[in-house]
Task: structure prediction
Amino acid sequence: MIALVDCNSFFCSCERLFRPDLKNKPVVVLSNNDGCIISRTQEAKQLGLKMGGPYFEIKSFCRKYDVHVFSSNFSLYTNISDRVMSTLEKFSSLVEIYSVDEAFLDLSTCQNDLKVMGKKIKQTIDQEIGIPVGVGIAKTKALAKVANYLAKKSDEVVVLDNEEVVNDALKLVPIEDLWGVGRQNQIKMKALGIMTAYDFKNYDNEKHIQSVFTKTGLQLKKELEGISCFSLSKATPKKKSILSSRSFGQVVTSKEELKKSIAYHISLAAQSLRKQNSLCSQLYIFLRTSYYGKTEFHSKTTQINFSVPVDDTLFLIEQGMKAVDKIYQQNILYKKAGVGLEKIVDNDSYQLGLFDRPNNERKTLMNLMDQINNREGKFTLKSMACGVDNSLWKMKQDFKSPRYTTSWNDLYKLK
DNA sequence: TCTGGGGTCCTAGGACCC
DNA sequence: TCTGGGGTCCTAGGACCC
Result:
């Protein structure tokens, strides 16, 4: 059996940890740039605030109903997430961290009653970390997701441990709420008369499912039948692509400013590439305007391939600057820029060209830079291409809480 | 004024091979 | 009159997730 443990309103719950006065009050957390809502407490949901809703539209509403608003504080959230995950490891030797606020636990060797086990997990996380979680337990990942979905509604631990219980549960899940069914597929499902997860499980034409919803769709159906198709894995696999991008706090038109932001993103992405001991053979960059602007949407992407894979920030920046020259256009109101590193390979086994020699000096320099930046903080040592003043494209964060758990300067102060 | 960021997987179709 | 058959590899784009 597999448990899915998922933190309730995770980002909001993290904020509440250090603001106990916000208990039972509506709280929301905004995306980067204070753009839109990405986490809501139950109270905020009840007020009708929507996930993904733009903040500027609900600003006065929040003031009126005393909704507490936070900018996102990811260093806090990832730190709390790490604590939750390591606590979960006490309950199973196989914990798959599925996202910042969710994990699958293998409970196949669990001797106790599963419901009791689920309650124990809830209590422990609440007591040791202070974050409320929901627990759903079932035979496959997809069914554990269903169990968790129902657990959230009742605040009980839900265990789906026999056919009848599973069927009853699946009838309660509208097809659009099923894990793996998104905006497009729910339309197709409904056209086939599939309105609930139960209908999907019992749809009897597998070939048709495969052709309409691809291999993944068929796997999902089998998972609902109790046949495991998505296995649990502990190891966090290396990333196959690494992205860094950000919307600007304001519109940017200057090529020099765009170059600085691209250099900045390349620095971040390359550092994360080196962290997982990888190299990349492709760099792509993009510049685009706002989706919502008055002028027509404009977006340009370009990519550069390297015959020998690299992880050298300075080399990548050099290439990135050329790429900006290629796609930049004057009089465009740029609102977002970003880079991606692709075709990622391990740095201990890759193909050199016949006449290529690794640049060991650069390697030493990158190592040193990473060491210093890990110790002293990001961008302590950086390429001057990133510039010294990024106020023009810096993001907006008007409601950011202190980094209580990751910065000495932000430590919680007691009288 | 103002709408996020970072990922994975799958498939069709093009390019190529003999 | 009339022009084969069987493959592999790669990529862009679309779907999904949080």
